[in-house]
Amino acid sequence: MTIRKTIFPVAGLGTRFLPATKAVPKEMLPVVDRPLIQYAVDEALEAGVETMIFVTGRNKSAIEDHFDMAYELERIQADRGKSLAALEGTRLTPGNAIFVRQQEPRGLGHAIWCARDIVGDEPFAIILPDELLIGRQHGCLAQMVAQYDKVGGNLVCALEVQPEETHNYGVIDPGRRDGVLTEVKGLVEKPARGSAPSNLMLPGRYILQPEVMALLATQEAGAGGEVQLTDAMARLIGKQPFHGVTFDGERFDCGSKLGFAQANFALAARDPAMGEDLKAWAKALLATERVNML
Amino acid sequence: MIGGPPILITGAAGFIGHATAQRLLARGDQVIGVDNLDDHGDPALKAARLATLDGHAAFHFVKADVAEPEGMARLVHDHDVRRVVHLAAQAGVRHSITTPFACERSNVGGHLAVLEACRQAQTFEHLLYASSSAVYGDRPLGSAGFREDDPADTPVSLYAATKRAAELMSHSYAALHGLPQTGLRFFTVYGPWGRPDMAYFHFTRLTLAGEAIDIYGNGAMTRDFTYIDDVVTGIVGALDRAPARGEHRILNIGEGRPESLMTMIATLEAALGQTTRKRMQPMQPGDVTATWADIARLHRLTGYRPRVGLAEGLQRFVGWYRDFYGVAA
Ligand SMILES: NC(=O)c1ccc[n+]([C@@H]2O[C@H](COP(=O)([O-])OP(=O)(O)OC[C@H]3O[C@@H](n4cnc5c(N)ncnc54)[C@H](O)[C@@H]3O)[C@@H](O)[C@H]2O)c1
To answer: What average pLDDT does this structure show over B94-119?
Structure first.
């Protein structure tokens, strides 16, 4: 069955980016000229997804507006004879953007569970917009869907990281490997240094079977008093096919200020209109002044 | 003409050229100063150096490019120049990396134009030109100073290569045309009116501004620092003892004493009465680890003995710096 629906959990408060996120949802912070959430939606669109399900919280209405028609703006631009090209891709097909609120912050698993009735009895994808994944040729979710068409079941995106960084992440306990596919035997949250079963971390992209919703419903709160998605996924392992798909591309952790700044720089440096200027400027900025020793 | 035919100094707006012009003028020589006043280095400082010479009736400045052969030949011919102190160059390793063709043009093309101009002169006595300790390449400090006969065929910067090329061209002009010449290999010259791109000058500016300094080679570099007045004494001493026809001699001119970079910085900080944060950096490309001049040859020829040590020299530099840039102690 094809993947028609994607859940975007966007209820988080974004406190790491205060005061920027006091009135603006952190998913609306721009990387170069697009808000983070739009990179996520574009990624889903590229993968053939039709229905975008946003699990929101209070203060997130800007996201709704972003994917709506901007009547006034479009009118004024049109009257001035200006192009609307920049707004392309921001308006979703009517009925295809669905918003549901997670009333209380009870973890990622709980956020996904909030979308259970909209997802219904079909497989679905999850994209965490904080994780900005720039695929080398195709977007991350498109890469995963291509594998899903072969093996079905449950898939998590797997990103290779330096072995000395694995203790920061959830990591795959790997079984058989076949190209970009790795059989998942287990999931280990933040393994102690030197004990990680692999260097494949989970950067926030999932394709899951609807059974996970039932598991989430009965799931006890786990680490941090929150309902953990990882715990529910772990319970599917062994019962349904479960694979990791090694991602071919770059990851920017836009949940951290450093990653966010890196994403902005990296993508701006690639921008045909300003990339070269930016790089020249950065080079001059970073050059330590050299001296003559003779 | 009073004082006989003029001495032509190229690079007269530069650090060593300016100091040499002052000394020669002070003792009554006629001096023609040439410089293209290019915008490498610090144009304002070049103008200020020239301003101190302009009042002299015996000083005549010509803005010209030494790499223009006709212009140089005409200058030498028209003024009956018999002695040339050729210091114009794109000095320093850094520029030679970023602007290699300009470096080649001034340092090799310019040198050849000067050689030609001198060769064509009716009566010519002496071409003294600037070479550099850089020609010794990257060699360990060892237990004795570098001697003029030591190998100098492994330059690690284009700058060093151009300086060595100039020496070799000079050698050929002595052999071919008998042109009497002295090549002076300068070892890290410092002092008042110095070059802002040099480490001691740069560090002074940053320290007074409260900014951190980058220490290259992690501080593990050694230099033979030579005070400007001693250099000028050496230049004038060698200039006055013209070589025979066909003779080309190469002479080191240093203090004859290697100091570590860290000692130089500590001495500078003492002179400034102020310290600053230091960031250790790897070696810059093109730099050599150590220099140390054996100065016996120059001593035998001229009686040269350096008089100003590093502490005294940096003290004088800092005094000049504070005065010139209006930075109170
Ligand atoms: N200062 C040192 O520590 C040191 C060490 C070794 C060798 N040297 C050599 O001594 C000489 C003088 O050095 P400095 O420290 O006074 O440097 P400087 O840069 O202060 O002086 C060189 C002068 O030459 C002029 N010049 C450059 N290219 C020219 C051109 N094509 N035509 C006319 N003028 C030109 C510049 O405008 C400058 O005023 C140079 O040949 C340099 O390579 C200096």
So the answer is: 95
What is the extent of the structural domain holding B239? 7-186+227-255+292-306
Mapped onto helix, strand or coil, the DSSP state of residue A29 is coil
Contact predicate B187/B255, CB 8 Å: yes
Domain with residues A5-286, CATH architecture: Alpha-Beta Complex (3.90)
What kind and span of H or E run contains A275?
Answer: helix A275-286
Q: Which residue(s) pair with A244 in the sheet?
A: A156, A182
Q: Are B133 and B188 in contact (CB under 8 A)?
A: yes
Give buried/exposed letters for A82-100 (b at 16+ CB in 10 A, else e).
Answer: eeeeeeeebebeeeebebb
**pTM attached to this predicted model:** 0.63
The complex's ipTM?
Answer: 0.71
Looking at the 3D structure of chain B, how many domains does it have?
1
pLDDT confidence tier of residue A145, bands split at 50, 70 and 90: very high
For residue B61, tell me if it sits in a domain. yes
Question: What φ, ψ does residue A179 adopt, rounded to 5°?
Answer: 60, -125
Where do the domains of chain A lie? Answer: 5-286
DSSP letters along B118-140, please? HHHSSS--EEEEEEEGGGG-S--
Which of these, B253, B274, B254, B257, lies nearest to B265 by C-alpha position?
B274
Task: Tell me how far apart the alpha carbons of residues B300 and B306 are, in angstroms, rounded to a whole number.
Answer: 13
pLDDT recorded at residue A288: 63
CB B154 within 8 A of CB B288: no
Q: Residue A105 has what pLDDT?
A: 82
Is residue B321 a part of any domain in this protein? no
Q: Which CATH number characterizes residue B240's domain?
A: 3.40.50.720
Residue B124 counted as domain residue? yes
The tokens describing A53, both together, are: 């399900």
Pocket test for ligand 1, best of B10, B23, B34, B36 (most atoms within 8 A of CB): B36
* Reported confidence tier of residue A12, pLDDT bands at 50, 70, 90: confident
| Chain B: closest CA distance from residue A280 (Å) | 15
Q: Of all atoms in ligand 1, which is nearest to the CA of residue B92?
A: 43
pLDDT average, residue stretch B33-56: 92
Nearest CA in chain A to B132: A294
Instruction: Tell me which residue of A83, A47, A68 sits closest to A207, measured CA to CA.
Output: A47
Please compute the mean of the pLDDT values over residues A51-56 and round it to a whole number.
Answer: 96
**Residue B1 confidence (pLDDT):** 43
Top mean-pLDDT range of A12-26, A78-92, B233-247:
B233-247
**Residue B223: pLDDT band by 50, 70, 90 thresholds?**
very high
Diameter over CA atoms, chain B? 58
Ramachandran assignment for B34, one of left (phi > 0), alpha (psi -120 to 50 degrees), beta (any other):
beta
Among B10, B20, B35, B46, which is best to mutate for testing ligand 1, by the most ligand atoms less than 8 A from CB?
B35
Q: What is the largest CA-CA distance in chain A?
A: 76
pLDDT value at position A286? Answer: 75
Chain B CB contacts of A294 below 8 Å: 92-93, 132-134, 159, 187-188, 223, 287-288, 291
Pocket of ligand 1 (CB under 6 A): A 294; B 11, 13-17, 35-38, 41, 46, 65-67, 87-91, 106, 110, 130, 132, 186, 188-189, 195
Residues B92 and B159: beta-carbon distance below 8 Å: yes
Residue B238 near residue B251, CB atoms below 8 Å: yes
